[in-house]
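BUG: 3D viewer hangs when loading the predicted structure for this chain

Environment: internal workstation, default settings.
Expected: structure renders.
Actual: progress bar stalls at 90%.

Input used:
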Amino acid sequence: MRYRKNIFRDKTFLTMAGVTVLAVAAIAGGVMLNNSETQPETSQIADLNENNDKDSTLSTNDIAANNGATKSTKEYGTDSDLTNNGSEDETTTSGESETSENQQSGEDNVNEAGAGVSGFSFSADSTLVWPVETNDIIIDYSPDATVYFATLDKYKTSNAISIRSEVGTPVYAAASGTVCDIGYNEEIGNSISLDLGSDYTLQYGQIKDIQVSEGDVVSEGDLLCYVADPTKYYSVEGPNLYLKLTLGDTTVDPLDYLDFKE
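Structure tokens produced before the viewer hung:
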């Protein structure tokens, strides 16, 4: 009986020892498992921190590089602005110089050509050449006293002269100038006006076959037109060239400028 109790005790001891060994092994295995699981996590955290440090370093470098680039860009922009400002200053100076030269050139042209825009100068001392072959005056210039008009059979003032001519007689420019008007009215028929410069204008009437156009520049002696049949206002007087000279808005006597001989 005692023998059986000893055996039982021995089995119990062995069982408990086995359980203890298993427990210790399990604990050891658990510890090892925990260590193996913890080590990678620690490694990942370290890697993450290392990556963060690298990113931080990279970001710092990028920021520094960007700041440098920004500074460079700003400095370049400043240089560009200065360059542009210099160009604008040069352009402005050049433009002002050209404007000044143009103004001076225009003033010189006015001084050389007189007050007229046409570029020609005519004055009280200037001379007109005869525009037709004859110098037979049939109606005198008379703005203050009346003269006889045969066709109208009446006396009235005259602000122009009429030079007897044959139909088809060539009519020439009595002075150089610019054709400023070509027109028609019932009294003098077709007409041409020349801007002689310095506010002088010379008008031809009772003409036909006009050879020039408005804006044309003509020289003294150039062919302008031909004498036409007289209008009904000059039918008794016969064919003639109507010639009127004005200074501004005031008529003047063409004979004061023509080399008139009886």
